[in-house]
Write a structure and sequence with these properties.
heterodimer; A: 187 residues; B: mainly alpha; 8 helices; 0% strand
């Protein structure tokens, strides 16, 4: 018959293990906090890199095009700025200062729900803002002599990419949702 | 805006927590990260989260609960981030096969096996086992994790079973 575990033994074993000491002063922590903020700032900038690269290209088109040809680049710039703002607002945050107020299950469930909602609504905040600019660009292309074929190709590629993005994100959201349901069952 | 007295309260509360729970935080970090270099980063992250957290600490729960919640939340977030770059699959207590851990035999070997077992667990079960090893009871673990008291007790029982199922066969299974 298996011996009943001796909690004291295992507890002692764990608690009396040799531990490396680490002393951090308050000043060091403040320094680290600043460094951490800077790192997040640069990471965000990198994430917006694509937007920052593409916007000047559209801005350049505005310089050389006039009239209704300006509609598509203007709408795309607006859409990209909106998407970048959304990425900033939805970016993963460090452990929040008040994380001690909530037990882990609630904390983790909140994190997963935030991620799931972001993935589920990706069509609304990531794709839809770009649609007016892309449609305007498609019409613009279609109205040029012999441009209908190019416009159809352009529209088809965009539609396939968008459908792929929605499908992949939906699948990831589904996995998160299953995890959330499991957590709910534990409370 | 934080006043000077808020800041000094935050600093002194952090210092008190760090001196009281510093060693426990090192052990906790060891339970969440095997690599010593990365463990140091995790530990710094925990301390940083802890210091920041004291801005919002108004004594609604004990300092001990607060410290462990912050530390476990930071540890679990760390595991989630690291999981993306690692191929290992984390399992729940129910999926864990019995692991012989005999503290009376060879402490270093027993500790190594115990730590390896902890590293295989999903964050919630890891939190339960680490808390149990730190001497917390089901009620405290329930408060810490958000599990119901019954559920916490069941998991503790499962931990005991897993750790000691092969207690008598420790020598046979030792690897």
């Amino acid at each position: 018959m298996p011996t009943e575990p001796n909690a004291n033994d295992l507890g002692n074993l764990w608690q009396k293990q040799e531990t490396e000491t680490m002393t951090i002063t308050i000043d060091e922590l403040k320094l680290r906090a600043n460094r951490f903020e800077r790192r997040i700032h640069w990471r965000n900038l990198r994430e917006y890199g694509a937007g920052f690269l593409v916007i000047p290209i559209f801005a350049l088109r505005l310089r050389y095009q006039g009239g209704w040809h300006m509609v598509s680049p203007l709408l795309l710039i607006g859409g990209l700025l909106y998407v970048m703002l959304q990425i900033y607002l939805r970016a993963a945050k460090p452990v929040p200062g008040d994380a001690g107020k909530t037990a882990w299950l609630e904390f983790h469930r909140g994190e997963l729900e935030r991620q799931r909602d972001a993935l589920c609504s990706v069509w609304r905040w990531y794709l839809l803002p770009l649609v007016p600019g892309l449609v305007a660009g498609m019409i613009d292309t279609a109205l040029t002599p012999g441009g209908i074929g190019a416009a159809v190709l352009y529209g088809s590629v965009c539609a396939i990419v968008f459908a792929g993005v929605v499908k992949l994100n939906g699948r990831a959201a589904g996995k998160l949702d299953a995890e959330i349901q499991t957590l709910k069952g534990m409370i | 805006m934080a006043t000077t007295s808020d800041v000094s309260a935050q600093d002194s509360q952090y210092e008190q927590a760090a001196s009281e729970y510093g060693a426990a935080l090192v052990r906790l970090a060891r339970g969440y990260e095997a690599d010593p270099e990365k463990r140091r980063d995790l530990l710094q992250e925990i301390h940083l989260a802890l210091w920041r957290s004291f801005k919002a600490f108004h004594g609604a729960c004990s300092m001990r609960t607060w410290v462990y919640r912050i530390a476990h939340n930071a540890g679990a977030s760390w595991v989630a981030r690291q999981k993306r770059s690692r191929s290992e699959v984390l399992v729940g207590l129910d999926e864990l096969e019995a692991t012989p851990v005999r503290p009376d035999l060879d402490r270093a070997l027993a500790l190594e096996r115990l730590t390896r077992l902890i590293h295989r667990l999903k964050p919630l079960d890891r939190q339960v086992i680490l808390s149990w090893l730190e001497g917390m009871d089901a009620a405290e673990i329930s408060e810490l994790t958000g599990l119901s008291a019954g559920s916490a007790a069941t998991r503790i029982h499962r931990i005991k079973t897993v750790l000691t199922h092969s207690f008598n066969e420790g020598n046979c299974h030792a690897n």
